[in-house]
């Protein structure tokens, strides 16, 4: 731990700039707690940054250390209340020093002026390095019995927030939801289905693949797997959790959700070759009293909820979500999406 | 009050079928309270029914008495607690005898199975007649000092519900809204602006007309009038109340609302010549943590709120909303939309 460490860095905005290289030990300015990395999850945002289409480097630096889905072991807690050896995950977003009202009350996930920073994404180095530092108040304990599965905490916070918002918005009226349709069986969709089952709902999951691990993962939850169009599910779900961002599926979600229902959008998809019309969407929203809402990011509350939800899940099931593991030096291979991928992680030696 | 009365009837689904004719006195099965009509408001739904593109007649009847924006004077309260001479408005929607869970708890405005009925729209005669009957529990008292302005209660319930939902949905996070943009200065938009001003918000109203009563009505509220595109308002409003249903304006609303904001849709517009894309809409909903929700109809709670809001409004201002008054025999002229119209009413002799 002397003169440096290996890390994955990229020049944001420059395609092909990703490299695994020696960098200095993490600056103490990033936080009092020194953490040894155990694993880092890879998601679509990392791929976008690697392709040069997203991301910002820290002020004064060309390069950004990538990675925001963290898991590590405390090696030096500094003056914090953590113990050496505890497993922790770093919260991704930070409020601006001159915070908006939401950031000021700790709801930086709902930042209203866009002046936040994000570890590994926006203006602060991320977690794809042998070691990283974090402020004690932005480190969240995870059950060490989860082992490397603790790396699923950050994606779980996305659905923990979505569910919190669904429950809160649902209180606008009398509402006793029974059924949920999850669209897209990627990591967010499957973790969303997990939490929906934990909430006692009848859960349906729709994806385009007919084989591979997804149908089994859904069945193992006690949920029902579907392929085809949303109308073919034969159900007016009370809730739709749309995780693909594919506009045709957004439109089908709005068309098929129950009157008074809630459609939660978590995915940002590509523009479709044939654009779906916003007219039908807006008309149905009115006539069916629908809520359509988007959700991104998470605050401390969602990390704590997600940590409980992960700890309550079946370990074998969570293991199956991680379909590929690469070493830090092989991160390029990890970023190349493969058809069978659900969650790909970088696992430290 | 012997053998019959004048009423406006239509064969739903048949264009050109509207007539003003003699019909029997209202059946006592419609309610114990007999009411003498004072006025009935005309809205877009009435025009649609008159054009044969909406509406359902009562079971066993070909013709439906039109009219759902009511105001009348109690002439025979039956065994109800009303006094002769009180001013009342009839609630429009009724739950099905085999109600859905929402209807069962009195939230028929959020009916989840579509099996409701509506006075003057769906399977029950409306209020465009010299006299009508109503169940005591579906009659709402209005301040008699409002005079004929009480006919504005029903459209006010639409915005009372919208505001209740905005406030309730807003509690999903810390939220301290300061600014609202109302899109469309028709009756719903102007009544929405009135309530927003009553709530202490900074209110902006956008419409396409440059002259006529609308700019003055907005200024008289202490609100700010705009024409042009939504981006030209030069504001990221916390709330947008979209009252036109024009898809291009829905899209501009979503593009310009503040992150974490709420867009409420109350209008159902025509399909646009150039369709707006649902992709941009869905992407912005996610990245900005937006809620987009539609609102239609109202329950008893919204009638009571709206009655208080109307009673608190400036009478002169409300008078200006009613830009044209026709007699029952001239209802055809009232249904023909004219450029200067805001609210047109049928006023009884």
Low-pLDDT segments of chain A: none
Largest sheet of chain A: 7 strands, mixed
Gyration radius over CA of chain A: 20 Å
In the CATH scheme, the class of the largest domain in chain A would be Alpha Beta
Q: Kindly state the number of beta strands of chain A.
A: 19
> What string gives the helices and strands of chain A in order?
EEEHEEEEHEEEEHEHEHEEHEHEHHEHE
Number of domains as seen in the coordinates of chain A:
2
* Separate helix tally of chain A: 10
Q: Give the averaged pLDDT of chain A, no decimals.
A: 94
Report the CATH architecture of the largest domain in chain A: Alpha-Beta Complex
Described by its quaternary structure, the protein is homodimer
- Helix percentage of chain A: 25-40%
Largest interface: A-B, 56 and 56 residues
Distance between the termini of chain A: 15 Å
CATH fold field value of the largest domain in chain A: Quinone Oxidoreductase, Chain A, domain 1
Architecture blueprint of SSEs:
The structure is a homodimer of 349-residue chains.
Chain A: E1 5-10, E2 19-23, E3 33-42, H1 44-50, E4 64-65, E5 69-76, E6 87-90, E7 93-94, H2 101-104, E8 117-119, E9 123-124, E10 131-134, E11 139-141, H3 153-170, E12 179-183, H4 187-198, E13 202-206, H5 213-220, E14 224-226, E15 239-242, H6 247-256, E16 262-265, H7 278-287, E17 291-294, H8 300-312, H9 315-321, E18 322-326, H10 331-335, E19 343-347
Parallel strand pairs in A: 8-9, 12-13, 12-15, 13-14, 15-16, 16-17, 18-19
Antiparallel strand pairs in A: 1-2, 1-4, 3-5, 3-10, 3-19, 5-6, 6-11, 7-8
């Amino acid at each position: 731990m002397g003169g440096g460490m290996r890390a994955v860095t990229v020049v944001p905005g420059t395609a092909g700039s990703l490299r695994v290289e020696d960098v200095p030990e993490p600056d103490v300015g990033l936080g009092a707690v020194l953490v040894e990395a155990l694993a880092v999850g890879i998601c679509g945002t990392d791929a976008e940054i690697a392709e040069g289409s997203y991301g910002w480097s820290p002020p004064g630096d060309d390069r950004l250390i990538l990675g925001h889905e963290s898991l590590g072991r405390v090696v030096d807690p500094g003056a914090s209340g953590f113990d050496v050896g505890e497993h922790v995950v770093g919260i991704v977003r930070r409020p601006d020093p001159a915070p908006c009202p939401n950031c000021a009350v700790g709801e930086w996930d709902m930042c209203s002026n866009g002046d936040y920073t994000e570890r590994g994404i926006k203006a602060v180095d991320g977690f794809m390095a042998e070691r990283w530092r974090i402020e004690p108040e932005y480190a969240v304990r995870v059950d060490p019995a989860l082992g490397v599965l603790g790396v699923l905490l950050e994606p779980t916070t996305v659905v923990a927030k979505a569910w919190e918002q669904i429950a809160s918005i649902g209180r606008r009226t009398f509402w006793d939801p029974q059924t949920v349709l999850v669209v897209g069986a990627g990591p967010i969709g499957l973790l969303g289905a997990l939490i929906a089952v934990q909430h006692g709902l009848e859960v349906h999951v729709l994806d385009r693949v007919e084989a591979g691990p997804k149908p089994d993962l859904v069945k193992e939850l006690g949920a029902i797997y579907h392929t085809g169009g949303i109308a073919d599910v034969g159900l007016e779900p009370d809730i739709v959790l749309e995780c693909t961002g594919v506009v045709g599926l957004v439109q089908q979600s709005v068309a098929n959700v129950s009157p008074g229902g809630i459609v939660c959008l978590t995915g940002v998809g590509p523009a479709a070759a044939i654009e779906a019309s916003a007219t039908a969407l807006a008309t149905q929203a009115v006539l069916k009293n629908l809520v359509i809402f988007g959700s991104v990011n998470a605050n401390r509350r969602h990390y704590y909820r997600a940590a409980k939800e992960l700890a309550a899940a079946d370990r074998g099931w969570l293991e199956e979500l991680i379909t590929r593991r690469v070493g830090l030096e092989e991160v390029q291979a990890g970023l190349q999406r493969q058809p069978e991928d659900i969650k790909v992680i970088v696992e430290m030696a």
